[in-house]
Amino acid sequence: MPASTLPTSLLHTLTTHTGAINALTFSSLGGTYILTGSSDRQIHLSRTEPSSATETITPIQRYASHGYPILDIACSRDNQTFASVGGDRSVFLWDVANNEGTVRRFGSTSGGHMSRITCVAFAGEGDSVIVSGSDDMSIRLWDVKSRDTRPIMVLEEAKDGVSSLVVSGCEIIAGSVDGRVRSYDIRTGKVTVDVMPGSVTSLDFSRDGRTLLIGCLDGRIRMLDRTDGTCLRAFPEEGETGYKNESLRLKSCFGQNEALVLSGSEGDGDVRAWDVLSGKNIGSAKVGSKVVSVVKWREGSQAQGRRSLWAGGGADGVVKIFGES
After folding, report:
1. Is omega for the bond preceding 69 within 30 degrees of 0, making it cis?
2. pLDDT, tens only, 159-185
3. What confidence tens digit (pLDDT) does each residue in 199-250 have?
4. CATH superfamily, domain at 9-323
5. Which of 19, 133, 211, 238 is a Cys-bridge partner for 119, taking CB atoms 3.0 to 4.6 Å apart?
6. Is-contact 265 247, C-beta < 8 A?
7. Which domain of life is it from (predicted)?
8. Percent helix, strand, coil in the chain (nearest 5)?
9. Looking at the whole model, is its pTM more than 0.70?
């Protein structure tokens, strides 16, 4: 595939949900499967690329213990478990092979979040820790190996809701509605703060952990050099029309070995892509007729015969997967 090209061939459509799509993630170790979370309070497991059908109306598994909309999902590196969060104010830990109920719930007793949980990630050796961020302005860390369901650490520096987080080694990086990105070094206790011009809606980071992708409610997505806090580039360019992010939490991401930035928009049902080096818009694809709130990229692998593709979903409740033709 030529450099800086957005794959726009529709490979697969998921119509398994009855509510808006708020979260999606590919499975680890190749991304053969995709987990989708919805306002219909269910998480669905489907194949990313089915062998024949181009539309899936019934998932492989349904996970339905949530009582409120699901807002984020994280998959463990061994693909055996995943964590989900939402309006329940608890972190749900699931066994992928068992849809009868959760393995663990963190925060359902003392020490839990006081408001909806917006983001979740695995951390630590062997994914032994779960990190969650909430509208209650806190980040909590939970020990997966312990029987104690109370948090092992609480981080409360945010002055407004925590909207997004990523984990890079021993660092937890969190974006907040207060317009700050805070990086916590768990080993040293040091906190580094970067100030953004608007509420932070999403975070993604490069594989080497040196570049951070930050979406904000000022309608821009910025690439930040984590070594010195320099803004390397902002998308879209000044004067470019179409992209809109003024009030909703949109999740953008890197793609094509970090040569692209992808994001949905409030203004239409399109996902747009920008070239990282030039900053130019290099194309778009229609995902729905309404807001596209979440987009994820899966890298290809020539050795495994796996093509690069990406998935997007939003208010329509439909997930579309695009790739190379």
Report:
1. no
2. 999 999 999 989 999 999 999 999 999
3. 999 999 999 999 999 999 999 999 999 989 999 999 999 989 999 999 999 9
4. YVTN repeat-like/Quinoprotein amine dehydrogenase (2.130.10.10)
5. 133
6. no
7. Eukaryota
8. 0, 50, 50
9. yes
